[in-house]
Design goal:
This protein has 669 residues and is of the alpha/beta class. The chain has 3 domains: 4-128 and 361-386, no CATH class; 142-282 and 496-665, FAD/NAD(P)-binding domain (3-Layer(bba) Sandwich), CATH 3.50.50.60; 291-347 and 403-436 and 440-490, FAD/NAD(P)-binding domain. The protein is built from 20 helices and 21 strands. Strands 3-2-1-7-19 form a 5-stranded parallel beta sheet, covered by helices on one side. Strand 14 (467-470) and strand 15 form a beta hairpin. Helix 3 packs antiparallel against helix 6 (93-104). The protein is globular. The structure holds ligand NA7. Ligand NA7 is lined by residues 280, 286, 288, 301, 318-324, 341, 343-344, 444, 491-494, 607, 609.
Length: 669
């Protein structure tokens, strides 16, 4: 980030360019910068009534008022430049709260302010970095080693924090490069559906996204940039697929095994093990009779075969989730025919920014106008985070519980139905096929990627009857209809609930992850720590997926901060082992299950990868981002049992076990 004075003088250097940029840039962040520079709250109130939501398209500020915002902002910047003014002090919390509320046309509760300031980062400080309490030069860091499994967003974030703390570490990555799920998913149209200026690390802001929701290649570019900037490559062992880890009680260490590129098994020891294997990297291949008999190309979206030319082919695509929603419309214009096999319909919302490029004006302002980027991040955080959370709780007195949860959820249903009807040109027969019978948000809410318009194309067919089996050249339906196909694409998702599979993780006292969790019942404390697995920390573990809103990178940063604090505790206090207490873990999961059961994902009409067949939500977090942030913000040593030396019985530091279940730190909302 440029120094404030330099940024201001750069911004005003070419007034025509500044004017041109402001003519296009988003009005809310511009207004916020203006108020921050001038403290003019009266003007804020003048504009505020015209802002009806956090997304830029929900702001209907009349043109003359917009002109006034631009005019005043130019004057304020010029004044700061001419008088060499220092950066304005950060507004006090109540002023910030008012500014934020005005910027999104809603009340921003006070409890969010510390989180938002951390996320926005007005100063130079890396707000989520963890620092030593003691002089690191005097700490036994050389004898300490951490292994991280996975070099996707999670593993790289952990690596950055470990590097900052000078903790020796190594990252094992099964692929030949960084990127994780973004490396593996190369299907046409692959893109993020969380806005990118929020879906990126808070400590590595990118002001050059070309789109609001970037495509996979641009995201991979960002991930590579992060990797190079932080000098991570030398720490990553590529082509090393971790196969298992066993806790060696005597040594108080993990023995981690991996397979190298040649298929040889290797082993290394570490004091702490961080799994960052993600939830979406083991494709789910459907068990459809005859799948192997198909003689044409057949591949999963996450293993896209770019060598297969789809031009002029009859393509069958099984699945209508997020991957299908992106891939389908991207290949539809090229193929001779696309037949989509839908098992259950998904909800998809429209977002006018989804297909838009970042305007040149916004790009200019992001790069050159101080605080514009911080405020845009705030806008997008607010637009896509906890906003719908309250509406995803079932109202027990609701009159149509099958199709919606409550009034707000029902309104959303009607809004989406109207939108889809419009996209389908009022085709009620097709509408009935694509509108889910369960409430909105029951499965992952998708962003419409022109899916419904695609269904109206002449070369598309939507099949909603069940598949019976597959033959050498066709898909056969239960009613006997035969659909010939040249290529089959499986857009059938991932084995998300079979978390950590196929890793063989062996903890204390004969515990194994598969034994404890089975194939579909993972649990962890905060999704990070598991009893009987000392010194093991999970990123994107049980119940940490986000389905009501938010960016998974935000959650990752929360988890990594927590883990870094735990490691700090281990190193500074000389603990050999640190294991989350069973009672703390159980209480957390009890609260979590209670909370999740009242939410939309547990709706009896929904099947999804968010839950297991006993209707327990295992993948998705029921908490608001704010709650999870608060729970992970400070590592609480008393929630762990520790041992100073290998072999020594674990003990609880500080207070007695029962007294520190930290029930107060768990949300009750
Ligand atoms: P999803 O969201 O799990 O979607 C998978 C789709 O495949 C979904 O429509 C499934 O139908 C369908 N499916 C799965 N198995 C079958 C069988 N056996 N027969 C017919 N249809 C089947 O995966 P995506 O890859 O689209 O998205 C995963 C995440 O990746 C996404 O949330 C983003 O975060 C990125 P169902 O709905 O289960 O009836």
């Amino acid at each position: 980030m440029q120094d404030f004075r330099t940024a201001v003088s750069e911004a005003v250097r070419d007034e025509a360019a500044l004017r041109g940029a402001l003519a296009e840039a988003d009005i809310a962040p511009m207004l916020m910068v203006l108020v921050q520079l001038t403290g003019d709250l009266d003007f804020l109130e003048k504009v505020a009534p015209h802002i009806h939501g956090a997304w830029s398209f929900l702001q209907s500020v009349p043109e003359p008022l917009k002109q006034e915002v631009r005019h005043r902002l130019i004057a304020a910047l010029q004044d700061h430049a001419a008088n060499d003014r220092p950066p304005p002090p950060q507004p006090p919390a109540d002023v910030l709260q008012r500014m934020m509320g005005a910027g999104v046309g809603q009340t921003v509760p006070e409890e969010y302010i510390p989180l938002l300031l951390e996320e926005m980062r007005f100063g130079e400080e890396d707000t989520r970095a963890v620092r030593w309490h003691r002089d690191p030069a005097k700490l036994p860091l050389q004898g300490f080693k951490v292994i991280v499994i996975g070099a996707g967003f999670g593993g790289l974030c952990a690596a950055i924090r470990l590097k900052q703390l000078s903790i020796p570490f190594e990252v094992l990555e099964k692929n030949a490069d960084v990127g994780g799920t973004w490396l593996e998913n190369g299907y046409p149209g692959c893109a993020v559906d969380t806005p990118n200026h929020f879906y990126s690390y808070s400590f590595h802001v990118n002001n050059r996204w070309t789109r609001h929701f970037s495509r996979r290649d641009e995201i991979l570019g960002y991930i590579n940039d992060v990797t190079e900037t932080h000098g991570l490559r030398p720490h990553i062992r590529f082509g090393a697929e971790a196969t298992g880890a066993a806790f060696d009680e005597k040594a108080g260490k993990w023995r981690v095994t991996w397979r190298d590129r040649e298929g040889r098994t290797e082993e290394a020891q570490c004091n702490a093990l961080i799994s960052a294997v993600g939830q979406l990297n083991r494709p789910s291949v459907p068990r459809i009779r005859g799948l192997d008999d198909f003689e044409g190309p057949l591949f999963h979206t996450a293993r896209w075969d770019g060598g297969v030319d789809l031009k002029g082919k009859r393509v069958a695509m099984i699945g209508t989730g997020a991957s299908a929603m992106q891939a389908g419309p991207s290949i539809a214009p090229d193929v001779a025919h696309l037949r989509v096999f839908q098992r259950t319909p998904h909800w998809a919302m429209n977002n006018p920014n989804y297909h838009r490029a970042v305007s040149a004006g916004n790009a200019w302002a992001l790069e050159r106008i101080p605080y514009f980027s911080n405020w845009l991040r705030f806008q997008l955080f607010w637009a896509s985070s906890d906003g719908f959370h309250a509406s995803l709780h079932a109202d027990p007195s609701w009159s149509s519980p099958d199709i919606s949860l409550n009034e707000a959820n029902h309104k959303m249903r009607e809004l989406i139905v109207d939108y889809v009807r419009g996209e389908l040109d009022g085709d009620e027969r097709l509408l009935a096929k694509v509108i889910p019978g369960y409430p909105p948000y029951g499965k992952r809410m998708l962003r419409d990627n022109h899916w419904y318009r695609m269904l109206k194309r002449g070369n598309i067919a939507l099949e909603t009857d069940p598949i019976s089996h597959i033959t050498a050249d066709s898909i056969v339906m239960k009613d006997g209809t035969v659909h010939p196909a040249d290529v089959i694409i499986l857009a059938t998702g991932f084995q998300a609930s079979r978390m950590l599979w196929p890793l063989d993780i062996r903890g204390r006292d004969g515990h194994t992850i598969r034994g404890d969790w089975g194939d579909d019942d993972p649990r962890g404390y905060l999704g990070i720590a598991v009893p009987h697995y000392p010194n093991l920390f999970l990123i994107y573990g049980p119940n940490t997926n986000l389905a009501h809103g938010g960016s998974i990178i935000f959650h990752t940063e929360c988890q990594v901060r927590y883990i870094a604090q735990a490691l700090r505790e281990m190193v500074e206090r000389g603990y050999a082992t640190m294991e989350v207490r069973q009672d703390v873990h159980d209480l957390y999961n009890h609260r979590l299950d209670e909370k999740a059961q009242g939410m939309v994902w547990a709706h009896p009409g929904v099947t999804s990868w968010y839950k297991n067949d006993r209707n327990r939500i295992t993948v998705t977090s029921p908490w608001r981002l704010l709650d999870y942030w608060a729970m992970t913000r400070h590592f609480v040593p008393d929630e762990f049992r520790v041992a100073n030396r290998p072999g020594q019985a674990p003990k609880v530091p500080g207070q007695r076990a029962e007294a520190v279940a930290s029930a107060d730190s768990l949300p009750v909302s």
